[in-house]
Amino acid sequence: MKPAKLLRALVPTLATMTALAAVCLASAPASAQNDRPLRILVGYPAGGTADLAARLIGDKLREELKQTVVIENKPGAGGRLVMDYARTLPADGNTLVVANSAVMTIAPLTYRKLNYDIQRDFVPVAQTANFQLALATGPGAPAKTLKEYIEWLKASPAKNNSYASPALGSIPHFFGLLIGKQVGVEMLHVPFNGSAPLMNALVGGQVPASVDTLADLTEMHRAGKIRVLASSGTQRSVALPDVPTFTELGYKDIEGLGRYGFLAPAGVPRATIDRLNAAIVHAVQSADLKERFLKLGLEPQTGSAEQFGKVLAADAGRWGPVVKASGYTGD
């Protein structure tokens, strides 16, 4: 082929290559952003239920999003410390917070001087699980059933009425007060900084009883080191089918569920929220993760970001009267 004809043949190809190069350059910033790690912040120590749930979902999100996922534990102040920190971060879709009912629902009802506003500073991304609460005894109490515990409690209430919870202002804190109200004994709350030190005290006999999430009590109950007497659901937990509910034992007003879910700093674009929600929902609905959650005592629960927002609004209405009746304020 003559040089002139060869040049004319190459012109369309060169033009096409130039156009493709322009498209690639235009898309480069988006690709760079996708290469940034997704940070999942956990406001509780490593090894607890919130941390384990975050790591299980994080492993799935690495596959779903084709993105590096980093779990960061920032424990303190019953989970409120991480909320204070997260609200200051950029709303770029690269940060999620694993939040539970303590920081999403209870803290706004009890603390008048919170540094964060749950509605102003955060946006719901996806619910991941419900969890039941439960009452457990250790070597410090002789009771093996709820009936025996209540009889022991009433025999010497001033001596036997203390119960531990993982934090001041937590759902277990208020659930313990609710138990006391329903059985007719004023309970004495003993707060700990997390479920791990609480469990050490319960197993060691320093406290006779504790109220915590069923998930955080499950392992030691199975090991025979503590005894879970009753749980807060309307049905028995799959994780501990041997444990009755308060409802089936005749205490229909001792009932309530907590939540786990993901929040993001307010201002994250809607399309990004939808993308993250879809990935989280798909992860939670996977058969192996469901099985792991159930073994932990978590009940998998997903839905849209809007549905999660409605659940949180309903929870505020459910727990508001309980908190108010307790007279407790965090500050």
From TrEMBL:
Keywords: Signal. Residues 1-21 form the signal peptide. InterPro entries: BUG, Bug_dom1. SUPFAM superfamilies: Periplasmic binding protein-like II. It holds the Pfam family TctC. Belongs to the UPF0065 (bug) family. This is Tricarboxylate transport protein TctC. It comes from Cupriavidus basilensis.
